[in-house]
Automatic annotation (TrEMBL):
Transmembrane segments annotated in the record for this chain: 40-58
High-level lineage: Eukaryota, Viridiplantae, Streptophyta, Embryophyta, Tracheophyta
Membrane listed as a keyword: yes
Record keywords: Membrane, Transmembrane, Transmembrane helix
All copies of domain PGG, residue ranges: 30-64
One Pfam entry name: PGG
Keyword Flavoprotein: no
Organism: Vitis vinifera
UniProt name for this protein: PGG domain-containing protein
Length: 68
């Protein structure tokens, strides 16, 4: 078990080196996640709206031509 963080020749830890080399990938992943979240939110609202309408619609619709 190491109690110190080993440094490379540029005096960076593994975590710092990883963050520096993958900054663009991290930024792209965050943007993709935001777009995906927005799309899923829109889809879930649409599904909830359709489910609500289906739950409160009378099956067969109103019969306007029958005798009471």
């Amino acid at each position: 078990m190491h109690l110190t963080k080993p440094l490379n020749k540029d005096n960076q830890t593994a975590e710092e080196l990883f963050a520096a080399r993958n900054e663009r990938l991290h930024r792209d992943a965050k943007e993709w996640l935001m777009r995906t979240t927005e799309n899923c939110t829109i889809l879930s609202v649409f599904i909830a709206t359709v489910a609500f309408a289906a739950a409160y619609t009378v099956p067969g619709g109103p019969n306007q031509y029958s005798n009471p």
